[in-house]
Design brief:
Distance between the termini: 28 Å
CATH topology: Neuraminidase
CATH class: Mainly Beta
Strand content: over 45%
Shape: globular
Length: 307
């Protein structure tokens, strides 16, 4: 699929948001910033939260909500940048709120029920003003965290765990009618679907489901799943690592298509432009943001571009 390169030189970009003015907000995880990419490719630093800013979304107050994973150790070799283990200067997992005008960073959540967030990764807002987010945890040389999915209010007043345990939960998105929550597991290469009864309440599947979800799709071979977006037809478009590209999964899981792009760490996708027909995709080891005319319009997001 043909694409155009919007900008280069980013330090492991993720969490793209297509803004109404034509710019793209994204995080640079290695640099610890929230960055605005202008249509002409120039970069502007919006805020410097530090740690490891990861998934991002616009909330009901117009501010940017960020999952901060606390940081990574990094390998930069042959011009390719990639994250590895929990670093010595790990600063703790948290959910942050950033004022786009001033760059002020507020910390909303660091714990739930007295337990620390370890590596919050991605989030999505529903129409009730709350948001779902994943915590992928941190990996150390000999052990790693067991983590899950959470639901929180945007005003910082409430957070709860709704599914546990998952294996490296990463991308998260909602179906067009907000009735299904989709979550990608990185290391298993699976997407799970959670049917929702209400805000932050899943219709929990019995055992042998490990966490109450139902398997939407899995892929064979050595390929891993990262973040995701849903298009207007309800297809789940999940960024794919190693076998770099976007994997498109139909709402019933029956059809799976892989669209390759030239980076082994294709990490995220969002929709914007006229009619939401443009996909903006982060190619992270090479530090690029690209744009692709997508075969179908994307799904508008609550509080940003949903009509």
């Amino acid at each position: 699929m043909e694409f155009r390169e919007i900008t280069v030189g980013l330090r492991f970009p993720e969490g793209p948001i297509a803004m109404p003015d034509g710019s793209i907000l994204l995080v640079e995880i290695e640099r610890g910033t929230l960055t605005r990419v202008l249509p002409d490719g120039r970069h502007e630093i919006v805020a410097r939260p530090g740690g490891g800013p990861n998934g991002a979304a616009i909330g009901p107050d117009g501010k940017c909500y960020v999952c901060n994973n606390g940081g990574f150790s990094w390998v930069d070799k042959n011009g390719l940048l990639r994250p590895t283990l929990q670093p010595e200067d790990y600063s703790g997992g948290r959910i942050e709120r950033i004022d786009l005008a001033s760059g002020k960073v507020e910390i909303l959540y660091t714990h739930f029920d007295g337990l620390p967030l370890r590596g919050p990764n991605d989030l999505v807002f529903d129409g009730h003003g709350g948001f779902y987010f994943t915590d992928r945890g941190k990996v150390r040389m000999r052990d790693e965290d067991r983590t899950g999915i959470y639901y929180a209010k945007a005003d910082g007043s409430s957070i709860r765990e709704i599914a546990f345990p998952m294996i490296s939960p990463n991308g998260i998105a909602l179906s067009p009618d907000d009735s299904v929550l989709y979550v990608a597991e990185t290391m298993t290469g699976r997407v799970w679907a959670f049917d929702l009864l209400g805000p932050g309440e899943i219709d929990r599947r019995p055992w042998p489901s490990p966490h109450g979800g139902r398997l939407l799709a899995g892929v064979g071979g050595f390929q891993l799943f990262d973040s995701m977006a849903v298009d207007g037809a309800g297809n789940v478009c999940v960024a794919t690592l190693i076998n770099g590209g976007i994997t498109v999964i139909s709402p019933d899981g029956a059809k799976v298509e892989h669209i390759p792009f030239p980076d082994s760490y294709v990490t995220n996708i969002c929709f914007g432009g006229e009619g939401l027909r443009t996909a903006f995709i982060t190619l992270s080891t090479t530090g690029r943001l690209i744009a692709v005319e997508w075969p179908r319009p994307g799904l508008g997001l609550h509080y940003l571009n949903r009509r």
